[in-house]
Every structure is written in structure tokens, then in C-alpha cells.
Amino acid sequence: MTGLDREFLADWIECALLVRRGRALGFDALYGYADEVLEAGAAQVSLAVAQMTKRAQVLGEAYPFMVHGDVAVRGKANAVDYPYSGLLLLAPGGPVRHHLWASPTEEMVVAFERLTEVSVQHLWGESGRAVRFGWPSEAGRPPSFDEAVPWLAQKMGIAVGAGYRQPRRKDGGVDVVAWRPFPDGRPGFPIALVQCTLQENLVAKASDVDIRLWASWLSMDLEPVIALATPKTIRQGTVWDELALKGMVLERLRLTGLAPVGPMTGATAGWCVQTVERLRGTMRGVEGL
């Protein structure tokens, strides 16, 4: 298996905890599993467990796992229903993509956009709003891009720009739009245009949103924030630095930190439960640990 860095291994340990019917996973068993299945040594596993501890420190109650002494456990009985777990299951390079679907399905794309929508509406506090602009839409968005932009403008309470909108466009690179209106109802409020991706190569996706075009389609008094959302975790380094130069980076920890703490409901939660059940039949050796 490739890509055995601490983030990768931490993801696999967390997925193993979701898949196992028992809540706890002792380090001795974990070392054996990592050696046999992941071809990872004890030192690599220790770094991954330390990374889990850091994630718990950052997210607090929103993180559904815990490390206690020499045992890793699901910190929540219904851990699979938490936003963090949904993002974990959707991440490229993880067990879902390795065992079940090499490429993301449409259901996975929609699930991630929904999770992102729930998170980014809190970018500017409790008064923030967000809408999933991707197609297909459950929010009433017209399928034609030419009609979808006026629909979006009406929801946001701003005017439509005069720029030409190619009807064959899908979403103009924007999957979720977030904004924070003021009580006076006037324009000139913060807006975020969010590109969601389930791809491994993030740098290639970071320039999909063209501010110049969007400024011609929507009458925005302030320049919008451009953001890239991914269910991956990204360590500090050259990739993060390059992405941050192009816009706001919304990776798994940031998205989880923005989302309300507590179990998810609806179709995305159902997808997570079904996916974990499917993983139980494919993640070799996990149930026997």
C-alpha cells in the first residue's frame, strides 16, 4: 500500500474503529493489523495514533474517537453518524476508495456537498446561510446554468449581473455558496464561493472558480471569498501553502469544526451507515482484532 504517512494511517485506524463491532482497539492488535494489512511498522502506527490525539485536541466533542493509554476507542456509541465520520469515509485514499469505489460516485459527490453546505453556513456565525449549488439539486435549483444563477441571486437577495451565462455550464466551478446577510437587508455582505472536490490532487482544483466571471453573473459589492473544500486532512507544508495562496482551505478538521456538534440525519447519515456495513465485508482482519 502507498502513501503510508501519519494522516493516511490515522484515517485507516479511525475507519477500522467504525467498522469493528467492538468499540475498543488495543495497540498490540492494531500493530499486528497494520503490519499484516497495511505493511506499516510500529513507529508509523505510533505517529498515526499521535495524530489522532491531535485531532481530538483540535475538535473536542466533534471528534468521535479517543485514545486512552494503549487503547483507541470510538468515543461516541453512534460515531458513524457524526460529520467527522462522514468526511472520513469520503476521503480519497481511505478504505472506502480502496475497497469499494476507486472513483467517487454521484451519491458521494452529493453527500460531500451537503456536508460542506451544513458547515460553511456557519463561516460567519449563526446568522450565516448556505445553499448547495451543484446539480442535481434538492433545493429547487433549475438545471440550466442560465436559469440557476438568477435563482441563486434571488435566494441571496442580490441583483443578477449582465455577464453571459452559457446554459450548458453545470455550476461554474462552484458547488456551495455561503453568505452572511445583515439585518438591514442591503447588499455588501460577505460571500464565499466554494469548490468541493473528492480528488486526491487538490492543487489542480484550486483554480476552478473564476472571480471575474462570477462578478459578471452576480452583482456582488464585495469580492467573494474563494474556498476549496476537501474531506482530506492536510498537514502544514508545501501543499497547504500553495492552496492557501489561492483561497481559503476547508479540509476535514475545519469543516468539522464549523459543523454543529452531534449526529447527522437524513440521506448522508444513511449513506454512512450503509457504507460502514459494506466495509465490514471487505476490510480484511478488522473484526478479528
Describe the structure.
The protein is α/β, with parallel strands linked by helices and 289 residues long. The model has no long low-confidence stretch (mean pLDDT 90). Helix content is 42%, strand content 11%. It has 2 domains: 1-78 and 264-289; 106-258, Trna Endonuclease, Chain: A, domain 1 (3-Layer(aba) Sandwich), CATH 3.40.1350. It is built from 11 helices and 8 strands. 41% of the residues are buried. It has a 5-stranded mixed sheet.
Notable traits:
289 residues; 3-stranded antiparallel sheet; single chain
- How many structural domains in the coordinates? 2
Question: What is the molecular shape?
Answer: elongated
- State the CATH architecture of the largest domain: 3-Layer(aba) Sandwich
What is the total tally of β strands?
8
How would you summarize what this structure contains?
With 289 residues, the protein is α/β, with parallel strands linked by helices.
Any chance you could write out the topology, listing elements then pairs?
Elements: H1 6-19, E1 24-26, H2 27-38, H3 42-59, E2 65-68, E3 71-74, H4 83-90, H5 95-100, H6 106-120, E4 129-132, H7 145-156, E5 176-179, E6 191-196, H8 211-217, E7 225-229, H9 238-246, E8 248-250, H10 252-258, H11 267-280
Parallel strand pairs: 6-7, 7-8
Antiparallel strand pairs: 1-3, 2-3, 4-5, 5-6
